[in-house]
Specification:
- By secondary structure, the chain is α+β, with helices and mostly antiparallel strands.
- The protein has one domain: Winged helix-like DNA-binding domain superfamily/Winged helix DNA-binding domain (Arc Repressor Mutant, subunit A, Orthogonal Bundle).
- 61% of the residues lie in helices and 14% in strands.
- It contains 5 helices and 3 strands.
- A 3-stranded antiparallel sheet has the order 1-3-2.
- A hairpin with a 2-residue loop joins strand 2 and strand 3 (76-81).
- Helix 3 packs across helix 4 (52-64).
- The chain is globular.
Length: 98
């Protein structure tokens, strides 16, 4: 049997991303961005009915862990998914509950 070689850094990064998305509000943000592609923090907190500070906190976690990217357009900062495969992961998890 062939020995499995593990890259600890890649495993830690993957675990960090999974921890980042493992929150109901963050899953809601990812789902929203999957549908709308680019949104400002105002559009996000309005759409999911949470406080602006809470939305900013969750967006910061998702951005820090490499789940989201942001781009300034005029006075707004627009957030989007870094990789659309994340929405497929959320869809997969949701299908497991059916």
């Amino acid at each position: 049997m062939k020995k499995l070689v593990l890259d600890i850094n890649k495993l830690e990064m993957a675990a960090g991303r999974l921890r980042a998305i493992a929150h109901p509000m963050r899953i809601a943000i990812i789902s929203l961005l999957d549908q709308q592609k680019k949104l400002s923090v105002t559009e996000i907190y309005t759409a999911i009915d949470i406080e602006q500070a809470s939305a900013s906190h969750h967006l910061n976690i998702l951005k820090t862990k490499g789940v989201l990217v942001s781009k300034r357009e005029g006075k707004k900062i627009l957030y989007s998914l870094k990789n659309e495969i994340l929405s497929e992961i959320i869809d997969c998890i949701n299908r497991c509950n059916e």
